[in-house]
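Many introductory courses stop at the sequence. We go one step further.
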Amino acid sequence: MSTRRLWLVRHARPLIAPGICYGALDVPADPAATADCARRMAQALPAGLPAHHSPLQRCEHLALALQALRPDLTPKPDPRLVEMDFGAWEGLAWNTIAREDIDTWTARFAEHRPGGGDCLAAMLDRVAAALHEARTGPPGDVLWISHAGVARCVQWLLEAPGRAGALPRSDEWPHAAPDPGQWACYPLD
């Protein structure tokens, strides 16, 4: 029996200057990189899997480009797959955000709302709900087109079964995520 997989694809490189804080900021992705990612995904993905995507344009455009190449995939927006909202920090250069504000977030990593936006605990809850649905849904693989933060949440949740609801500290948080326009596969079984 084969293992069911979650194909988690990160949107292509966003069109935003390096060093800028963006999460829920709805910035576009590079169109050529989006088309390239869609071509590679179209060749790699199994047939007919459910396709869910963050409603932010950098993910939606990739989902639509993929659907144009693979009509057997019908993308559906899922707000649970959106990137973390950094509130008032969105669009600011990281080096202009007060060091004490970043330190406060680091000290209370899962509960603090950076910039007044999302806290990590709430993001983990919404990604956990989407992951539970993927794990208990119809048989077969599932596709998510999303963000680095969602990929890190998935990693934490899949590694956390023995942690029984424990929240991560900043030094425990996964740093790895697919590069823009790349993907990773995670077991659902």
